[in-house]
């Protein structure tokens, strides 16, 4: 993971719910849509009925109510420049040769 990606991840894990107000940097970061910011490899999929993340930062950023799923992701890659994307909801396979 790049130094910038690691720093961003660490910042996300430290966020408290009260920083998510419209116009804040945290709000901008977590509500930007229409762009691919990077890629990850999904290593495992968990049901919230069986297991929840143990990291407090992760718990604050997700909805872990019953009958939902969450992913354990590895190898995050944050792109230098976000890539515009439309028409793709949720998760999809990314073309490795896509211009970055």
As a percent range, the share of helical residues equals 25-40%
Rounded mean pLDDT is 72
Q: What gyration radius follows from the Cα positions, in whole Å?
A: 15 Å
Number of helical regions = 3
Unreliable stretches? none
Distance N terminus to C terminus? 16 Å
The proportion of strand residues reads 25-35%
Structural shape:
globular
Counting structural domains, the number is 1
Question: What can be said about the biggest beta sheet?
Answer: 2 strands, antiparallel
Task: Output the structural class.
Answer: alpha+beta
Order of helices and strands: HHEHE
What this model shows, in words?
The protein has one domain (3-78). It has 3 helices and 2 strands, in the order ααβαβ. It has helices spanning 3-14, 25-31, 56-61; strands at residues 35-47, 69-84. The protein has a two-stranded antiparallel ribbon with strand order 1-2. The protein is globular and about 35 Å long. The model has no long low-confidence stretch (mean pLDDT 72).
């Amino acid at each position: 993971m790049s130094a910038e990606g690691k720093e961003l991840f660490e910042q996300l894990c430290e966020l408290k719910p009260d920083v998510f107000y419209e116009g804040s940097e945290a709000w901008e970061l977590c509500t930007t849509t229409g762009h691919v910011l990077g890629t990850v490899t999904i290593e495992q999929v968990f049901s919230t009925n069986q297991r929840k993340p143990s990291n407090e930062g992760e718990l604050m950023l997700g909805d872990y109510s019953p009958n939902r799923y969450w992913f354990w992701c590895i190898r995050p890659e944050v792109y230098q420049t976000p890539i515009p994307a439309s028409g793709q909801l949720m998760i999809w396979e990314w073309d490795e040769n896509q211009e970055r």
